[in-house]
């Protein structure tokens, strides 16, 4: 059976789709699992041995998109997050069975519309995604391995990184950026406070990580931490290299953004910050990795409560 799984949004969103893709392959290894994704997520998709084919939605002409889907000879599709473009394209491609959440006007183009009410947050995003797989296979096993993605050469990458930067201690990483995908984060003064507290302890190597589009933020933090032993790492070697690297970190500290989901995917322990709302909370956006390796904090709006939580997190990190 050729099964298409559609998730064409950001990095963290695609990672929440990976457990669904994995269980579909595990349910029957003869299933051909095809994913339709955004260009950003292509390297990650190609690294997953439970994905057989990758279709990238470049956002170009719809009829070319329809032609590509037809060529894949898809028997059934599961669209984890829908929009009118991907819904109409699947309809025009003549996919016989089209499954999606019953939301938005786009639902009219699907053969099976599943009421989920995700805004009620009765489960996490990746769990809602897996529930959709039950429409295709009611008896499917929802268990999946953790970490879900393991790289054979990850330890080698980490050892080379440590040798190149003369690192002789376990690494605690801070990712202070968020790319606009998170509703809550500490400001740079607050992050600097946490970073200096860890540096003063002199127990771990502090590494600040930055994406290739965060050069300005990199420069700001470089100026703030001038003369300190923190290593500022601008990730220019691609998403997969970064995933391999952080899989060996002692801890990854960030807001709830794509890099957090990546860290959880590859088994790195995390401390993560969320907005103080149900829809943006850890209940909805927890990582796909082992829950015992995840610590979640919701940042309050009130200044005094915010300061109190900052010191709680400091204590949490220093007691590692």
Kindly describe this structure.
This protein has 320 residues and is α/β, with parallel strands linked by helices. It has two domains: 2-136, Rossmann fold; 154-318, Rossmann fold, CATH 3.40.50. It has helices at residues 11-15, 18-27, 42-46, 62-71, 84-93, 125-136, 154-164, 188-201, 215-224, 239-246, 258-265, 282-285, 303-318, and strands at residues 2-7, 32-37, 53-56, 76-79, 97-101, 112-114, 171-175, 205-210, 231-234, 251-255, 270-275, 294-299. The chain has a six-stranded parallel β-sheet, with helices on both faces. A six-stranded parallel β-sheet has the order 9-8-7-10-11-12, sandwiched between helices. Strand 2, helix 3 (42-46) and strand 3 (53-56) form a beta-alpha-beta unit. Helix 2 (18-27) packs parallel to helix 6 (125-136), helix 4 (62-71) packs across helix 5 (84-93) and helix 8 (188-201) packs parallel to helix 13. It is globular. It starts with a strand and ends with a helix. The mean pLDDT is 96.
Structural class: alpha/beta
Helix content: 25-40%
Counting structural domains, the number is 2
Q: Give the CA-CA distance, first to last residue.
A: 48 Å
Number of strands: 12
User: Low-confidence runs (pLDDT<50, min 5 residues)?
Assistant: none
> Biggest sheet, open or closed, and with what strands and sense?
6 strands, parallel
Beta content: 15-25%
What's the pLDDT, averaged over the residues? 96
CATH homologous superfamily identity of the largest domain: Glycogen Phosphorylase B
CATH top-level class of the largest domain? Alpha Beta
- H/E element string? EHHEHEHEHEEHHEHEHEHEHEHEH
Per CATH, the architecture of the largest domain is 3-Layer(aba) Sandwich
The coarse overall form would be: globular
- Radius of gyration, CA atoms, in whole angstroms: 21 Å
Strand order of the largest sheet: 3-2-1-4-5-6
> What is the CATH topology of the largest domain?
Rossmann fold
